[in-house]
Amino acid sequence: MFGGAAALDFNEEAHKLFKKLNIDPSTKTNGLYNPTDPIWRHPTGGGTIFVGNQTAAESLEMLTSLKITRVVNCTHGHGAIPNFHPGKLLYYTFPISHWFMNVNSTNDSVINFTKPMFAFIEEAISKGENVLVHCLAGAHRAGTTGCACLVHFADMEVAEAISTAKACRRIIDPIGQLPAFLVRLRNAEKESATATSSAALAT
User: Fold this and answer.
1) Whole-number Å distance between alpha carbons of 48 and 50
2) Could you give phi then psi for residue 174, rounded to 5 degrees?
3) pTM value surpassing 0.85
4) Beta pairing partners, 41
5) Backbone dihedral angles phi then psi of residue 173, each to the nearest 5 degrees
6) pLDDT one-digit tens code per residue, 156-195
7) Which of 18, 35, 77, 134 has the fewest CB atoms within 10 Å of its CB?
8) Beta bridge partners of 130
């Protein structure tokens, strides 16, 4: 079922997207393709989640100006983008393009895969610090991770999370097996919430 996902080259897809949009990813614009865009702000802590590309990840000046203290790097393995500013920023690698290698048929496995990443983000945004979620283009891998953040933090259904994320950053586009990951996440979180509620009522 998941064999096709492993064969999908997300860096190649990002470059196709650059070409399709006739853009230079290093160009800082205020139009369709920005280095980074905010997609969600913590309602009480005030920290913001940004989704962006390699240009944003590489520019310490940009990250500092946006008060970003943590970075979720959604690339890994061959062709992974390095963590450019270790010692100055905190990093978490989230291998979303190979989620199916970290998740089995159980909902618990989905929670175990995503929980450390969400905790890493929550620790920052709950105290007013901002987080960058990035890949090469900030469209597929980071875009899907951004959608996952909306599912988790804003309690959105998958379709709403995707449409909301795209409204914030139009280039976001979950492809391949990435939408299936979002469905698995939503189902797992619903089951977890139901179990927690039932346990609370039983006590």
Assistant:
1) 6
2) -60, 125
3) yes
4) 48
5) -160, 90
6) 999 999 999 998 999 999 999 999 999 999 999 999 887 7
7) 77
8) 68
Query: Quick one: which of 188, 198, 171, 192 has its CA closest to 17?
Result: 171
How long, in residues, is the chain?
A: 203
Residue 199 has which token pair? Answer: 């346990």
Going along the chain from its start, the domains and CATH numbers come out as 35-191 (3.90.190.10)
Contacts 24+ apart (CB under 8 A), 105-111: 107/184, 107/187, 107/188, 107/191, 107/192, 108/188, 110/184, 110/185, 110/187, 110/188, 111/188, 111/189, 111/192
Q: Which two tokens stand for residue 203?
A: 């006590």
Q: What pLDDT shows up at residue 16?
A: 80
Rounded-to-integer distance, Cα 123 and Cα 147, Å: 19
H helices within 8-157, ranges in order? Answer: 10-21, 54-58, 60-65, 107-125, 141-153
Q: What is the DSSP string of 83-126?
A: -S-BTTBEEEE--GGGGGGT--SSHHHHHHHHHHHHHHHHHHHT
